[in-house]
Amino acid sequence: MAFGLSTEVIGMLAFTLLAFWGVAGWALVRTLRQEGRKVEILRHQDRMDTYSPRALAELGEWIEENPDDPLVDDARDRYNECVETLRRTDRHFYDWSDEEIARLERR
Amino acid sequence: MAEVPSKTARAEWGTRFGFLMAMIGAMVGAGNIWRFPYVMGNNGGGAFVLAFLSLLFLLAAPGLMAEVALGRYTKKGVIGAFRDVVGRGGMVGLGVVVLMVNVALMSYYSPVIAWTLYYAIHSLLFTFTAAGFEAEAFMTGLFENSALMIGLHTVVMGSIAAILALGIRRGVERIVVYAVPALVTALVIMTIRGLTLPGASEGIAFAFDVQWEYLTYSDTWIAALGQALFSTGLGWGIALTIGSYLREYDDVPLGGGVFTAIGESSVGILAALAIFPIVFAVGVEPDAGAGLAFVSLVQVFPEIPFGGLVAILFFVGFFLATFTSGLLITEVGVTTVSEETRLDRTQTTLVVCGAIWLLGLPSAYSVDVLDYLDFVFGNWGLPLATLAIIGVIGWVVGPRRLRLLAVNRNAGVYVGRWWDPLIKYVIPTVMIFIMAYFAWENFGTPEMIGGMLVIALFPIIGYAIMSVLEGRGGRPDTAGVTGGDD
């Protein structure tokens, strides 16, 4: 037992540091790395994909289900912008396969 | 849209790190340093940590994602964001409610920053380690010296105005990218100093001993709930304002939600590690608030090797924590008033800071006034602001729409459907519960009456102001997105 602390206290201290500083550090490193990748992509092209495959699929599904929604035009613009960008650019931020891109249609 | 001529292109954060540090700088304040460690130690230590952590993930991180996303989606301050959502008319007054709560909060927070500034200056003068120093008399002397407090309050608001006038990138971002790392570094060095003192383990045990039975006490969960919601500044308009300056391809949920909620709480954990080993090593009773920072710790510094230097680290770090919060709280008003009037940023900064300075004079003059306002706005005013922002997202914009249009766009992590009911039902219910709980606990007291007046009058004032200004008699037009999606 370090410093005369019980195993339970040491375990809790380790868990707390991991759960807080570990998660915060992971999030910080991950988001800064992603930022670096985005900057790198935008050095080669002026636009970048804005949705992951799962997020774009859900957006498309919502557009289909809510054709009269006040925000559907905005949603459609965002959907189509991502589709166009995926078709016209070589480098993508999210993990898009060529097959997935080929299957996409404008809404 | 406000009928105001376009001034210049809207500012943006210069770097991702700048945005992240702005979020942390805004949310880490006095509460992380002088409240969190004591609340943690007194509510079951490790058991409290588990309750707190679960509520951070369940409420604070999702709520912050929503608030930042609304700011990013509308690219406007609190009033403009509400107008975009509810349409022109009296209901935009909910944005005025958030603005008024922020101004009120800053009016009594500025004197708190003034205290930390005063102690930081005296730490640099090695006052606390001088022979014959009396901690309690020193603190009382400051609190009772109204002229000095008003002077310090003036210096604080003047400094904030000077920085905010420089703008988002040249002012706010330049400060926070240095201030937040400096605060963390100061606490880390203080932790190392504390842990190497004989008897430090008692402090660690006080904070991290797991008393499992506390997880069955409602008081533990209410304390954790209050800490998770108030410490992260959820729904105060700060995250919305900071999010409104995000760049086109920036992520919201990972940085604005997870990193902010967990990162700012990590500073509280670090403060516990920095403070309690030192306090227990010297055998001083742990405390919270001004008693901890300005009496207990000040008594401890002369007793430990290099105490004068540790005092500098602590009080300069403490000042940075409160000052960066003050900057971003004030930015809420500056952003909004600048958008809603024909004033330029410098003029707006002077008007907003001048108004806060004027309203802050009673709190600077008397600690009793400060305590009263802190209680009233802490328990009812801030939850009212949170209810306004999260309520509008949950019930007017609709969480699913916001998630699809703003949260998951350019996101670093995918946010699924689980998020929607949290925003629509859970957070608003929790805020109503908090306001009702504190009203019940303080039934009939002057604080409770003040709180009820805030809850009743602020929305009426906000509604009346916007009804008159927008000239529509409070009827929303079709520009809003009313209708919800769920």
What does this structure look like?
The complex is a heterodimer of chains A (107) and B (486). With 107 residues, chain A is mainly alpha-helical. Chain A has two domains: 2-44; 53-103, no CATH class. Chain A is built from four helices and no strands. With 486 residues, chain B is mostly helical. Chain B has a single domain (16-470), classed as Amino acid/polyamine transporter I (Up-down Bundle). In chain B, 75% of the residues lie in helices and 0% in strands. The two termini of chain B are 26 Å apart. At the A-B interface, helix 1, helix 2 and helix 3 of A face helix 1, helix 3, helix 9, helix 12 and helix 17 of B.
Low-confidence stretches of chain B: 1-5
Number of helices of chain A: 4
- In N-to-C order, the SSE pattern of chain A is HHHH
The CATH class of chain B turns out to be Mainly Alpha
* Structural class category of chain A: mainly alpha
CATH superfamily of chain B: Amino acid/polyamine transporter I
Assembly of the depicted chains: heterodimer
Shape label of chain B: globular
Uncertain runs of chain A with pLDDT below 50, 5 residues or more?
none
Describe the biggest sheet of chain A?
Answer: none
Largest interface: A-B, 42 and 43 residues
- Helix-strand pattern of chain B, N to C? HHHHHHHHHHHHHHHHHHH
The total strand number of chain B stands at 0
Mean pLDDT of chain A: 94
Report the total helices of chain B.
19
Number of strands of chain A: 0
What share of residues are in beta strands of chain B?
under 5%
CATH architecture of chain B: Up-down Bundle
Approximate strand percentage of chain A: under 5%
The tally of structural domains of chain A comes to 2
Q: How big is the Rg of chain A? A: 21 Å
